[in-house]
Amino acid sequence: MRTFAQGAPLRIVVPYPPGGSSDRSARLLAEVLQSRLGQAVVVENVVGAGGRLAMRQLAAAADPNVLVVANPALMVVAPLVYKNNGYEPERDFTPVSQISRYEFAIGVGPAVPVREVRHLLAWMRANPDKSNLGVPASGSLPHFFGLMLGQAAATPVNVVPYKGSAPMSTDLVGGHLPMAVDALDTLLPLHEGGKLRILATSGDKRAVPTIATFKESNLDVTAVGWNTVFAKATMPPDRADRLAAEIAAAMAAPSLQKAFLDAKAEPVVATREQTRAALAAFKARWVPVIQKAGLQFE
């Protein structure tokens, strides 16, 4: 086995509670990466401020043995919509390797008697006082989907930010929340278990044969999220390169590919250069959309 560093374990920070897409991706990776590096790899959930608390703490920390699994909400959206974000992605962090991609989905709980997006829009117009839409974090891409949904329905939608996917899913399944937008890999097991109904997904084509896309539902929205491993910007380039190579090799392992697919996520094998290019392409597409929306939080 190869060793990466002696002493303290390599920490992988997840800025959200257990149970969401980022958490699952980090834990699947850590198990394989630990054997490749020949040292302990520990996943740590740091919760607060929709994921921004962990990013602020990491930006201020000096720990060289730390990585973070982050998504578009933290690395693209938050700096644009929060006046006091507390960290700058390009200044404080460096991309190491993208590890997964995922689509988004809109689901409804058992109290909402609809099976298609057009029926949901009609339900929202008829029940404006009940149009509460859960999202796993404020200022996330699901938050923007909620605003777009309200525009399509021509009625206000009350976006309800949660502290992660798990508590939001609990309220959705329990009937305390009528509808929600989250990563498809988070909602799909609940849909398959009959605990909620997914009405549409955000890809260019159907991810699930029986579930329509947003475009098929006459909502002009397509989007794909991602989970990417980042290091502190102060990490020596040779160390970051070595970690990127080890992560890519781990992600290429058939066992890990299967584990991601079984978890309803698309595994990605990416070099640092490919990861930087994917991040740049995502920003080119979404930054103008986010800026145009004019959403601002304290």
Q: Could you characterize the architecture of this molecule?
A:
By secondary structure, the protein is of the alpha/beta class. It folds into two domains: 10-102 and 225-293, 3-Layer(aba) Sandwich (D-Maltodextrin-Binding Protein, domain 2); 103-201, Periplasmic binding protein-like II (D-Maltodextrin-Binding Protein, domain 2), CATH 3.40.190.10. 43% of the residues lie in helices and 20% in strands. It is built from eleven helices and ten strands. The protein has helices at 21-37, 52-60, 72-81, 89-92, 117-126, 141-153, 165-173, 184-192, 237-252, 254-262, 272-293, and strands at residues 10-14, 41-45, 66-70, 93-108, 132-135, 158-161, 179-183, 197-201, 224-232, 266-267. Strands 1, 2, 3, 4, 5, 6, 7, 8, 9 and 10 form a ten-stranded mixed sheet that branches. Helix 6 links the parallel strand 5 (132-135) and strand 6 (158-161). Helix 5 packs across helix 6 (141-153). The longest helix has 22 residues, at 272-293. The chain is globular. The chain starts with 9 loop residues before the first strand and ends in a 5-residue tail after the last helix. The mean pLDDT is 91.
